[in-house]
Write a structure and sequence with these properties.
Layout lengths: L1 H14 L4 H23 L7 H52 L2 H18 L3
């Protein structure tokens, strides 16, 4: 639950720029606690002393929190790049193709349909 909350807050932090630093801090805290308890539950470390046990849990939790942060950033930037590629492809299909393969009389219809599509889609 804590990991899901942390990832959700990370996503919200990318969308809401006013509270970005606060939300990132809270999301990292959630991720740290969630990863800590997953490690605590799944890895039995009875061979070591208690201090080494908790130090290793702390180090692993911090490392996996950073890994989750960089994975989230990689996914977010990939999503942005894909949106740009799709937008450029859409512009090419709608704007360039009619100029080369459609007669001049029908090009007006294509421009009108392009404007309708843009108005319906918005800034997705």
């Amino acid at each position: 639950m804590a990991i899901c909350s942390g990832l959700l807050l990370k996503f919200v932090a990318q969308q809401v720029l006013e509270f970005r630093m606060f939300l990132i801090f809270i999301s990292h805290s959630f991720l740290f606690v969630g990863i800590f308890f997953i490690i605590y539950t799944l890895v039995p470390l009875t061979d070591f002393s208690t201090s080494i046990y908790f130090i290793s849990l702390f180090i692993l939790s911090v490392a996996l929190t950073f890994a989750a942060h960089f994975l989230h950033r990689a996914i977010f930037t990939t999503e942005q790049r894909l949106k740009k590629i799709i937008s450029k492809l859409f512009d090419f299909i709608i704007l360039e193709t009619p100029r080369k393969h459609v007669s001049e009389e029908k090009q007006i219809d294509y421009v009108i349909s392009y404007e309708k599509i843009i108005n319906e889609i918005g800034d997705e």
